[in-house]
Amino acid sequence: MSELDLIGDEDVEIETTLNGSTLKRRVKARQHLADFLRQEMELTGTHLGCEHGICGACTVLIDGRTARGCLTLAAQASGRTVDTIEGLSQSGKLAELQKEFIERNAAQCGFCSSGMLLTAYELVSEGKKLSRAEIREYMSGNMCRCTGYHAIIDAVEAVLTRVAGGKR
Amino acid sequence: MKARNFRYVRPASLQDAYRILADADAVPVAGGQSLLAGLNMRLSSPKLLVDIGGLKELTGQSVSGNVVRLGALTRHREVLGSALVRKHLPLLTQAVPYIGHIAIRNRGTLGGSLAYADPAAELPACAVALDATLVLGSASGEREVKAEDFFKGLFETDLKTGELIVAVKFPATPPGTSVGFAELSRRRGDFAIVGLAVVAAMQGDRIADARLVYLGCVERAKVARSVSAGLAGHAAPFADSSAFEETIRQDLSPDDMPGLRADTRIHMATVLTRRVLNTLSEKAAA
Amino acid sequence: MTSSSTPVSAIGARIPRRELKRLLSGHGRYVDDIKLPHMLHAAFVRSPHAHAKIIAIDTTDARIAPGVAAVFTAVEINARCEPFVGVALHRPGHRSAPLPLLASDRAVWQGQPVAIVVAETRAEAEDAAELVAIEWEALPVIGNEQEAIAAGAPAIHAELGDNIAFDFSLNHGDSTRAFAEADVVIEEELRFARQMAMTLEARGLIADFNPGDETLTVIHAHQSPFQMQEIFSHQLKIPEHKVRVIAPDIGGGFGMKLNVYVDEIATVVASMILGRPVKLCVDRLESFLSDAQARDHHIKCRIALKKTGEILAMEVDDIAAIGAYGMPMRFNVAEGMMAITMAGAPYRFENYKARTRSVYVNKNLIGMYRGVGMPLACVVSELLTDFAAEKLGIDTVEFKRRNYWPKSALPCVTPGGQRLETVSFHECLEKLVQLMDYEGLRKEQRELRERGVYRGIGIATFCEQTAYGPPYYGPSGASISTQDGCTVRLEPSGMVRCITSLTDQGQGTLTGVAQIIAATLGVSIDDVSVVGGDSSISPYGGGAWASRGTAIGGEAALRAGNMLKKNILALASTVTQTAPEELDIVDGHVVNTQTGHNVASLADVGRIGYFRQDTLPKDFDVQLSVSASFVANDKVYYMANGVQASYVEVDCDTGFIKILGQWAVDDCGRVINPLLVDEQVRGGIVQGIGSVLFEECLYSEDANLLNGTLADYVLPMAYDVPDIFVGHVETPETSTQLGAKGIGEAGLIGAMGAVWVGVNDALKPLGAKVLHQPFTPERVLDALALAKR
Fold first, then answer.
1. Are residues A83 and A98 in the same domain?
2. Are C41 and C120 in contact (CB under 8 A)?
3. Chain C: closest CA distance from residue A121 (Å)
4. How far is the C-alpha of A88 from the C-alpha of A62, rounded, in Å?
């Protein structure tokens, strides 16, 4: 047994602020944050579409910024704040975006929607005037197979226009 | 897919990290954007993950004299938003938007990208184009390596077991130097089919001394010496690719990839070279 | 159509989906979100080889790995299930080897499941799967259709003698003579790469066999719970009334989740053996190797015309590489059959000869995917006619005007055997021309060409079989129901509960049903709840696939709604002593149409009907819960139609293609909800764009998949597609009350044609043609280089 076998642990104590509440848990080192949220915390609104960081269905906020839940270990979230679709929805922070999405049918199967909304939330929170092409580019890390994106871009543009006072 | 089992440790200090990483089965994780994708696909099986993401010694941005120092843990998003970088290292400001997508840039780090040494990645090419120096640290102290000497081969660097990139020192881009960066990829944020970072000292609209570094059709980030030398004295804009067509074939020898032959990649590199060089003249004039 | 004065009459209104409030707040319940008590997780060991003999399997180490409940191979699993033979009985000559659940003596495609590991967690199941040791002996690989049909090629399945699954020809008129007499002949050879449907939620199910009463409940991400109920019952010998299949929220179907999957059924068998629920959630890497794939065709086609532009004949020769087996139930010869029977359908001509061969290769099975063979038919017709128009010097729109079936010729049967009744080719075309400003774009195209900028306009017409009826699947022997049904129940408080056999994977079928019920009954849509997708609680039905959900299930809802309304009015009539003909339901109240007064609320009716029957005449029969089904006994399909346009720019230096604009005009009959219909069209269009520009499965010579991750299999993201404008023409289906036809696949069908033609239109001045989908930059550059030589 090498010295290395004495260092570190397969189970890790973490302390994180999740959707505004602090919690302490013991997690498996190998478990990524999205699985931790889904399996241990039973917050299943964050979805798994690929587990290789491409599709964006697992997007959460870490320290207020979007991140792929599948490309972050639960252990790495210790000492950080994590916000999920459930928390952001409950707090009303997504209300305007959700309203626009619903009115325009900017979601069909809904599997990409959690990630899509969180990325849109980051976009409108930055409050910068963006052109429609720039909005498309910003949202290009979130894959949707159902809507063809047009209605999603319309919805984000509508909220951004109100927030940023116009369009570029 | 779920990652295989491993142990995890978060060292309290940089010295602790060095000590732990002295074992070859220990692997550092910072942003994790490349590492975790590989772990989730079971492409690698480290025994121990060492989380260096909280080590303050690896953070920070500063300029001293004409050297800009960026800590290894500087996130891509921070590079993009940095006024210091915009002023002194405009090449990086141009290149970072090509890195993945917002969520990747929020987490991915400068040090992580350089250590991973993906030949299709933006930052290794920019580091070489800017003639940066990497500061490497270990239990036995720090050493400095020129970026071009750091990248040795396909995903292969000069990092020894137990070493971490601590920071990267970039010479500030002087006035009269033009920079350009562009990539051809199937979609925004994809790995580059071919990309090009250019740092060119100009004399009016003539190129005095150019450093061209390609990504995506090379094994490692290095200065394309023949192309770069062959451009000296030429004036942008370039009406055709005669000034670099041949030298590109000397400097680049990509492999065939599924659905993309080597000759197609050379062709695309040639097209991209002309396009990027033609943006230089616009800046030089301004 | 019963009149109702529900505000804005819910049918035809842009009503947002009620499900979205739930789905957009993280409260969807997809298969992987659901936990059952004592549940285990499955992971499969899959063949890494496209064709190899299994010499030995050693599961010793796997069985004792942490968390493992069991490891099963073909020995335990296959014994419990009849092998499938995926052939259509009404297609003489259609052959397939029997498809086993797990490979036993050899694997015939990379990804074929060989063993199933069942453990406490998915991670532990995967750990143990790595410990299953298999000794393989490589066998020669048939990797593509040319290898499959080459003289002397080994048959993948010796008992079949060769690799031909099905060889079908049709011949109408005398095309040979027509080609001999033609003034103009256009002949092309087209290739369509293998693709994935790529639903964002991969496949999954929870198999819950209850050993206490030997019932099986399966929570299944599947488009047709009734199909799967029948399969589980029949193949696994569980009496049908003891099988229940429930479709939860599903993250996309597109036809892919309609197929029959051996790994899913093997999971059910594992549950039966262990007497515990077992969950399978296929991960993305697996999905590339196991989801039914699509396309993979090689088509030779040609068209003969007079110099006036009149079409004399078409000929199509299709070969499809359909994988290693016939797809049970859903028959993977359908793409080829549809490609040749639908090619040229919008155009009036007499002489047509076509052949399709579906051949076996050592690859994953082809199955149903949006549009099936119709996008291929669209590409064939529209490319050939566009090239023909160019050769004849006729504008492509004018060419179509002259050659479409005129309304005066309807109903008619095309030379490919398609029945056209209520189609509207000309109307849709004229509307499209306006919508896109065709003349303006042609002018812009001309001007930019002079400056060396190459833009193209592609116009693509299609007609589309929707909502298949009993004559389609019935004779095939597949137990696929093309009916749907609906139970509608008045609740005591006056609310309305609806239980439909339809499923919803995001297209909005459940909202459509709610609209129909609300409009029929005269209530607010907010007072109607709809559940679907549970094989034990609704009338028997097909589910949502093949653009049929609203057309068929909506018609059933309409019937049930009318029946319930009659019964409500009968009760109200008795209670209020008013003739039922003088009563109607408006805004949830029974009104006397003579006086205009409310005479009872629906709550009154409910309260009396459920709790105060003592106040009713003793022989009054209260029936406030009714069920109705609908099927069109004699209808093979409805025929919808549409036309699309794509405005593209080709960067001739890099081969990159940008789509600048996309327009669609669709006639899907009566539009129940334009908001949902438009979004279905847009989503389909982007899948079509993905097909033409990006998507392909790349294989090694050994038929190993080279790009089986989402980083390497390229799909369109928001930046890669344009704004999409949708218009409508409504020519109602005349054989139903509702008049809806079907819209789910139209977007993809037309988009493939429009983008193929648009890109080739851009390259016309350079004499280059791109004929291999997807149009990667390299294929475009190669086409340009070829034209220069």
1. no
2. yes
3. 13
4. 12
Q: Are residues A15 and A80 in the same domain?
A: yes
Domains C20-27+483-630 and C374-466+636-788 share a fold: yes
CATH superfamily of this structure's domain C34-139+198-290: Aldehyde oxidase/xanthine dehydrogenase, a/b hammerhead (3.90.1170.50)
Q: For chain A, first and last CA: distance in Å?
A: 62
8 A C-beta contact, residue C709 and residue A52: yes
DSSP notation for B8-61: EE--SSHHHHHHHHTSTTEEEESS-TTHHHHHHTTS---SEEEE-TT-GGG--E
pLDDT of residue A3: 61
pLDDT score of C2 more than 60 = no
Contact C706 B258 (CB under 8 A): yes
Q: For the domain with range C20-27+483-630, which CATH number is right: 3.40.50.720, 3.30.230.10, 1.10.10.60, 3.30.365.10?
A: 3.30.365.10
Task: Please check the confidence at residue C22 and state whether its pLDDT lies above 80.
Answer: yes
Our CA-based measurement puts residue C598 at a distance from the nearest CA of chain A, in whole angstroms, of 33
Global ipTM:
0.97
Same domain, A18 and A84: yes
Residue C542 has what pLDDT? 87
Closest residue to C778, CB basis, from B2, B5, B264: B264
- Which chain A residues in 93-122 lie under 8 Å from chain C, judged by CB atoms? 94, 98, 101-105, 107-114, 117
- What's the rounded mean pLDDT across residues B16-44? 95
Interface probe with A: pick from C19, C200, C291, most Cβ of A within 10 Å: C200
CB C418 within 8 A of CB C639: yes
Domain count, chain A: 2
The pLDDT value given to residue C545: 86
Across the interface, do B32 and A51 touch by the CB < 8 Å criterion?
A: no
Tell me: the pLDDT tens digits for C247-290?
A: 999 999 999 999 999 999 999 999 999 999 999 999 999 999 99
Closest-approach residue (CA) in chain A for C248: A109
d(CA C688, CA C718): 14
Give residue for tokens 């397939």.
C96
**Could you report the per-residue pLDDT of B134-160, keeping only the tens digit for each?**
999 999 999 999 999 999 999 999 999
Instruction: Quote the tokens at residue B90.
Output: 């405009």
Task: Collect all residues of chain B within an 8 Å Cβ-Cβ radius of residue C706.
Answer: 258
Give me chain C's average pLDDT, please.
95
- Cβ contacts of A9 on chain B, cutoff 8 Å: 7-9
C 252-291 residues inside an 8 A Cβ radius of B:
283-285
Give the rounded distance of the alpha carbon of C300 from its chain centre.
25
Statement: C374-466+636-788 belongs to CATH 3.30.365.10: yes
The whole domain housing A138 covers: 94-163
Residues of A in contact with B33 (CB under 8 A): 53, 68, 71
Q: Which residue of C has its CA nearest to A28?
A: C123
Give the span between the Cα atoms of C516 and C564, in whole angstroms.
Answer: 13
pLDDT-based confidence at residue A4 (cuts at 50, 70, 90):
low
Which of A50-64, C115-129, C465-479 has the least mean pLDDT?
Answer: C465-479
Name the strands in the sheet holding B194-203, side by side, starting at the edge strand that comes first in the sequence: B177-184, B194-203, B206-215
- Is the full-model pTM beyond 0.95? yes
Distance CA C274, CA A84 (A): 36
Look at residue C465 and tell me whether its pLDDT is greater than 50.
Answer: yes
With cut-offs at 50, 70 and 90, classify the pLDDT of residue A166: low
B140: amino acid identity, one letter: S
**Among B25, B106, B189, whose Cβ lies nearest the Cβ of A65?**
B106
For C123, the closest of B2, B188, B268 (CB atoms) is B2
Q: Would you give the DSSP letter of residue B235?
A: B
CB nearest B187 (choices: C698, C709, C720):
C720
Tokens of C469: 């009826």
